[in-house]
Design brief:
Chain A has five helices and 24 strands. Chain A is mainly beta. Chain A starts with 9 loop residues before the first strand and ends in a 12-residue tail after the last strand. Chain B has a single domain, classed as Neuraminidase (6 Propeller), CATH 2.120.10. Classes of the chains: A mainly beta, B mainly beta.
């Protein structure tokens, strides 16, 4: 249970005379209070409790920007009746640093919103695959945010539209809290596997979510909030141009390895774009001795180039790139098995693939040498 | 008595047409408008909303058909402050994207957004900065209210091939061309005209939708000579335009940034074609023409243009009809082509006819306030 933090400014209580009330009925007192969002002090509503009767609320219960002038209209918002209380929710969040005055008949209350740093708004930093060209049987999209996000309402905030602007129905596996990494900064959108996989029920009933030749838009609503409650600085869009389905497995034996100098990264030109998250996680480098080389994995060129930058300079000698058989291309095809291959056809036990490469000795001139 | 009869007739007309939206293919619901980029009124108090981000146009029955046949003026001092108070914020955080007057009721409608924080370059327009999401109505007393676009009767038509959200503006840093998908809309005699950017190789486009929407639209890409830039351009969208008959033939009169005035014969604007317009005037570089209207004074029609960096410009259509040349070389002086007459009035951000005798404007005054101000037509 989250404790509701409520912040009240100057609170004035007023009471009402009720003509015709019997002596047994106590006089009700109306009160106004600013109630901040339980999760974020920068958002909130104004609550009128002890509301006497049904009214045309916008005309009798108003919230105004202090100092806006007597002829300025009250703040636009919705009036939500909750029992004998009425809650005013502004259409746009109250602005940091401004003072507002709530009024209901002779009851008044003022509150000031705390200041905040507007630079801190979260944003979408990247979407993978990076390339707008994707196969019809694309399996996942990754959305990377600058801040840890609130894991909530993901299906309502992420949309896929076709070229006519129609929302593609149920494109992703619907998980209300979303598939987030531990930090809450990377969201995985899983195209409904039942629709991508050929010949199973959802595929036959709804068809594939993306159709070859189509142009789609992935839209992340500005209304997505980070864990502090800040909305995105802008909504985000990415175009997806859909090509034919990818029904071939990635082939690590066709990768081109180009080891460079002592501290520069190993570059691996892949035979096709791979799933970025798996690419960064499922490739390791070991020395001939079997000792693992520590380093930082990277992906670029629309996930067709893998780089491995060692933490300390390379040691000369034979190294091996170990590729986990679970690595996948954009359509979920693994080196030894297609995503939607008949189960019987799967090879018995896929093994880790090893790609050897040499680090050449580098001539280090002795200190003081003219060369 | 005659006036009373006229009012009654108008009321009956409004009543009779009120039901007729049933026949226009309208449905009741919440239109999925992503940005209220441009506004224009059609027949019977139907408001057209151009949604640039959504790449569509909407016709919304506002149920605002009580006729106002008067010629009153309307003034709202500190309009920006009032909109800010209405949206619960300060003056520096609101923008007005477009304005249109309902010719039946004379109520003024504004497309409004909250959030000017992204304004970081001189030449950005409101649609570059934010998506307007609130439709504000100003009545004849100057009172503001919201028109909620929920559970309304509306029709929708999608733009064929609007500019891709991926394309970036050439010189507005970080701005997507999508913000100029719809720059202006105008209705005339059964047709809704939509100016903006398509996803074609030559992006500048004019779409025509027959109204009531039948699902059919024609799309023409446009090209014209910009004297101030010394070149033909196909990427710059029309900023403001009016459909207008010149010499008895229907034309589009369009103004562009830096400020050529161009005519396109309507007969040339065929679907799928690329059309070169005739540049007939140059009003000067470094200026956005923001709004254009036709008013009638002493029985003669005149074209009035409001600008970001110039005063009002008045152009006589007779001068356009009498001009046979076409500007196709760099202008040697600041202006060229058809003559115009200036009128005092800078800082005019929005403009429309309130009634036959009054032009309503939204104007930034030297003191800093943004006011809604009426100007008598006879003054022009």
């Amino acid at each position: 249970m989250v404790l509701r933090r409520s912040f009240a400014g100057i609170l004035v209580l007023g009471s009402f005379g009720h003509a015709g009330c019997g002596p047994e009925e106590p006089a009700r007192a109306a009160a106004l209070a600013f109630v901040s969002d339980p999760e974020n002090e920068h958002f909130g509503t104004v609550l009128l409790s002890g509301a006497p009767a049904r009214r045309v609320w916008p005309t009798v219960f108003t919230v105004r920007v202090e100092g806006a002038g007597a002829d300025a209209p009250p703040v636009l918002g919705d009036y939500l009746v909750e029992g004998d209380s009425v809650r005013f929710r502004p259409r746009f969040p109250f602005t940091a640093g401004l003072t507002y005055r709530g009024r209901f008949e002779d009851v008044e209350m003022a509150f000031t919103m705390p200041e905040r740093d507007p630079e801190e708004r979260p944003r979408v930093e990247a979407v993978y695959p990076s390339s707008p060209e994707v196969p019809e049987n694309l399996l996942r999209l990754y959305v990377h945010f600058s801040h840890s996000m609130r894991a909530k309402d993901v299906p309502e905030r992420i949309h896929l539209y076709d070229a006519e602007g129609r929302a593609v129905p149920l494109p992703f596996v619907e998980i209300e809290a979303g598939l987030w990494d531990a930090q809450g900064k990377r969201l995985t959108l899983f195209f409904h596997p039942g629709r991508v996989k050929r010949g199973v029920g959802p595929n036959l009933a709804l068809g594939v979510p993306l159709k070859a030749g189509g142009i789609y838009r992935l839209v992340v609503d500005r209304a997505m909030k980070d864990e502090r409650g800040y909305e995105l600085e802008a909504s985000f869009e990415k175009e997806l141009r859909v090509g034919p389905p990818d029904r071939t497995s990635p082939d690590p034996s066709a990768w081109k390895l180009s080891p460079a100098g002592r501290s520069s990264p190993l570059e691996v030109e892949l035979d096709e774009p791979l799933d970025r998250a798996l690419l960064l996680r499922l490739i390791r480098v070991i020395r001939d001795s079997g000792a693992e080389v520590s380093g930082v994995a990277g992906a670029s060129a629309n996930e067709t180039l893998f780089t491995f930058t060692p933490t300390t300079p390379w040691s000369p000698g034979t190294h091996r790139l170990l590729v986990d058989p679970e690595i996948e291309d954009l359509a979920g095809n693994k080196p030894a098995r297609l995503f939607d291959e008949e189960t019987g056809a799967a090879s018995a036990s896929p093994k880790t693939l090893e790609l050897p490469f040499e680090i050449e000795p580098v001539y280090d001139p002795p200190p003081g040498s003219l060369f | 008595m005659r006036k009373a009869f006229l009012v009654l007739a108008l009321a009956l007309y409004a009543f009779s047409t009120g039901a007729s939206t049933e026949d226009r293919g309208f449905t009741t619901g919440t239109p999925d408008i992503r940005s209220i980029s441009a506004l224009a009124f059609g027949p019977d108090g139907v408001l057209f909303i151009g949604d640039g981000k959504g790449g569509a146009v909407f016709a919304v029955d506002l149920n605002d058909k009580a006729p106002n046949g008067g010629n009153d003026v309307l003034t709202v001092p500190n309009l920006e402050g009032k909109i800010a108070a209405f949206l619960g914020t300060s003056k520096d955080d609101v923008m007005i994207h477009d304005m249109a007057v309902n010719p039946i009721s004379q109520n003024v409608y504004l497309a409004v957004s909250r959030g000017r924080g992204q304004w970081d370059q001189e030449w950005l327009l409101p649609n570059d900065i934010a998506d307007a999401s609130v439709l504000v109505k100003i009545d004849s007393k100057g009172a503001l209210s919201e028109v909620r676009l929920k559970e309304v009767r509306f029709g929708k038509a999608a733009l064929p091939n609007p500019v891709s959200p991926d394309k970036k503006h050439e010189w507005k840093e970080g701005i997507a061309l999508r913000t100029d998908t719809i720059t202006d809309i105008s209705y005339s005699e059964g047709t809704l005209y939509v100016a903006g950017l398509s996803n074609e190789e030559f992006a500048a486009a004019l779409w025509r939708f027959s109204y009531p929407f039948t699902g059919e639209a024609t799309a023409t890409t446009l090209e014209n000579y910009h004297g101030a830039h010394g070149q033909f351009e196909t990427e710059a969208p029309i900023r403001t335009f009016v459909p207008y008959a010149l010499g008895g033939k229907d034309h589009i009169l369009a103004a562009y940034l830096c400020t050529p005035l161009v005519t396109f014969p309507l007969a040339d604007l065929k679907d799928g074609e690329h059309v070169k317009g005739r540049t007939i005037a140059e009003f000067g570089s470094g200026n956005y023409p923001l709004d254009m209207l036709v008013y009638k004074k002493d029985g003669r029609e005149k074209l009035l243009i409001a600008n970001s960096d110039l005063p009002f410009l008045i152009v006589d259509p007779k001068d356009i009809e009498g001009y046979e040349g076409a500007i196709a070389e760099p202008t040697k002086t600041y202006v060229a082509g058809v003559r115009y007459e200036p009128r005092s009035g800078v800082g005019i951000q929005q403009m429309d006819l309130l009634n036959p005798e009054t032009i309503v404007t939204i104007r930034r005054h030297p003191g800093g306030n943004l006011d809604l101000v009426s100007l008598p037509v006879k003054w022009f």
